[in-house]
Amino acid sequence: MAYNVQLDGVDDYAVVAGDSHIGLDLTNHFKISITFSPSDLSSSQKYLLSKAVDGGDAYSIIWEYTDNKVEFYSFKYTGDNPRTGSAITITDTNKHTISYEYDGAIFRGYLDGVEQFSLAKSFSLIATGGSTRPLYIARSSGSNYFKGNLYDTTILKNNVVVAEWLMDEGTGATLYDTSGNGNHATLYGGTWVDDGTGGTTTTHEGTATLNGLGTVTVSGNRETFANGSLLGQGSLTATIQRIVSGDVSLLGSGTLTADSSSNAVHLAEAILSGLGTLNTSGQRVTLANATFNGEGTLNAIAGNVTVITGEANLTGVSSIVAEGLRVVSGYSTMNGSGSITAEVTKEITGNASLFGQGTLTANPSMIYIVDAELIGTSTFEAIPGEKIELIGTMRLEGQQVLNVYLVGKQELNVNLKGLIH
I need a labelling partner for 304 at 20 to 30 A (CA). Which of 36, 110, 203, 347 fits? Predict the structure, then answer.
């Protein structure tokens, strides 16, 4: 089943709270894309998208202010008026994708991938107060509710995706942001609609190769990707319940991203070379026998996270970050400016080495460090709530700092003799 959300034009809309969004205050380098279908052509003065700031809207995508046209509108800007010349004509109720793109000098508009205008303009959107003001989907900051169906919306800032709502959840009152920034939108009203273009999505990829700008995208229940290679700027993206990846190689600027209310991501013997990223906003990430080369990042941010890295190598400016319940790192090596950071209940590192400017930081209830080496300008710092145990040997060489701050009722169990060299 392929879902989208249907809005009634009366009081249905979605909103990203102003005190929680990340990167939605645009200025002069951005791209906004929306896929939608209007219910009819008789509507008047409706909004597809609107970002509030102090005193008005910094940017909006408006529909039917001019008959059968989508326009880019800003109430708060400096320089040229971005609305002038921005009209994109739509004369039917079919599904269309419109895009507005500005690089600081040329403002472009697209309909279904075909350029509709290209204008030399100099303007900047004003973001004053935007960090505390919401972003509205299918309405303005006042009302002006859109009537029709929304399929997806994507916002890029400085060529980086800061929000992507696929709007295919099929149930519930949350439109999940798959960018990794957590810009989830709360849906008020609306009806989930199956457009009949697919069944419950299950994808099995065996011995698959995607060359160049390859993408595997699934919105469904499960994706299984085995013995696959993504070469160049390849990405494997899913807003699903589970991703299982075996013997996967992502070369170049490869990305494996999963965002769901209940995610499991399993990577076995995976290699991410170059600017590789594994992001998940879900319940679990399991990473075994993995190698991250270059500026690789493993991030897990969720309310109930388990991150397991076995025999993993992170080379270059690398990091393992978790804000959840547990981080387990076994036999891992991080070279360069590597860091392991956790604000969790427990972190366990076994036989781990951090070379160069490595940092191991934790603010948890309990930390276990086993046979760890921090070489170079390295820091081990713990500010726990209840207990720290250092088991085995830890060696710090060069300009290092070992800080242990006991707060409240704690125990510090350390065999000092031969422990810290």
Answer: 203
